[in-house]
Amino acid sequence: MSDASLNTASTPSQAGPGDAEFGDYFALLKPRVMTLVVFTAFVGLMAAPQGVHPVVAFAAILFIAVGGGASGALNMWWDADIDRVMKRTRNRPIPAGKVTESEAFAFGITLAAFSVVLLALATNLLAGALLAFTIFFYVVIYSMWLKRWTPQNIVIGGAAGAFPPMIGWAAATGTISIESILMFTLIFMWTPPHFWALALFMRSDYDEAGVPMLTVTHGRPATRRHILVYTVLLAALAVATAFTSVGGPIYLTVAVVLNGAFMLGAVHIWRRDEDMAEADNYAVERKFFRLSLYYLFAHFVAIALEASLVPFGLGGW
Q: How far is residue 309's CA from residue 302's CA, in Å, rounded to a whole number?
């Protein structure tokens, strides 16, 4: 696929003026992704050593959510041409002809400016700046540059989804600390094996769209090795986090159990070849991907539980 064919500006939209409904605009926000953004940001805010007034906390999470939604809308605007090709994205509002590309762009830009300014006013300039950088990173660095240029798109681009707990922490403290960096790194290291597992059984989508995922550029055997390496590094990081101020016995238990299961799944993926995978319709890869969905959620639930017990002298070490 040529660069010209990937230019979103050259692809006319099927939507007409006023055709879009509320649900179509809501879908532009990528609500599933926004849920993870909101949750990890909330945990970052909750785990921070300084308390925050409930009204300020609510405002912070609301504006972080709006900023995450703005990133999703701008990503769909830029990736409209790819979304029209891939099976799992062709029913999104723009390729489905429900929202025009110009409407999606205006919607995303407006929400981005709104969320950044109001977060800075409600909390502090650092939190607003981090949210602005996160939106920029996801839309420009990842969507416009990395995604179509390098098989490391998910590795580097994963930083965009890893910033929310840092933003939540900054909203509460006005600082960046080793604890917020560790929460960032946990998401950052989780992202590649999570998406590479998906790519193993969705490779045809990326082939047709011309997206240089690792499965396309280096093949599935190399992708399987990469999943194993990143899972080993992730497990070491996740368990080590248990012995910091955001960890504790609850988190350690969750980390040991989940990372043991995650490591076992990565080893099973590494040992497979294409004949084995095709024979069972990539059942092992699909199982690993489903586990990865619970993996991150469970770790951050454990961090939140540790933080909630600290005032009672029960959380942490």
A: 11
CATH number for the domain harbouring residue 79? 1.10.357.140
Note whether 170 and 127 are within 8 A (CB). yes
User: 310: how many CB neighbours lie within 10 A of its CB?
Assistant: 15
Listed range (45-49, 130-134, 240-244, 312-316) with the worst mean pLDDT: 312-316
- Phi, psi (rounded to 5 degrees) for 221: -60, -45
Asked if residues 46 and 304 have their Cβ atoms less than 8 Å apart, the reply is yes
Reduce the secondary structure of 206-240 to three states and give it as a string. Answer: HHHHCCCCHHHHCCHHHHHHHHHHHHHHHHHHHHH
Place of tokens 């403290």: 173
CA distance 105 to 128: 21
> What is the C-alpha separation between 61 and 261, in angstroms, rounded?
32
DSSP E strand boundaries for the chain: none
- Report the distance separating Cα 273 and Cα 72, nearest Å: 35
* Backbone φ/ψ region at 202: left (φ over 0), alpha (ψ -120 to 50), beta: alpha
Grouping H, G, I as helix, E, B as strand and the rest as coil, residue 275 is helix
Contact predicate 199/214, CB 8 Å: yes
Kindly report the pTM of this predicted structure: 0.87
HSE, CB side, 13 Å, CA atoms: give it for residue 8.
Answer: 21
Classify the phi-psi angles of 33: left when phi > 0, otherwise alpha if psi is within -120 to 50, otherwise beta.
alpha
- Please tell me whether residues 198 and 118 are part of one structural domain: no
- What domain count does the chain have? 2
- Contact present, 242 and 257 (Cβ < 8 Å): no
pLDDT tens for 94-150 read 999 999 999 999 999 999 999 999 999 999 999 999 999 999 999 999 988 888 888
Locus of tokens 């996740």:
238
Identify the three-state secondary structure at position 53.
coil
Residue 7 lies in a domain: no
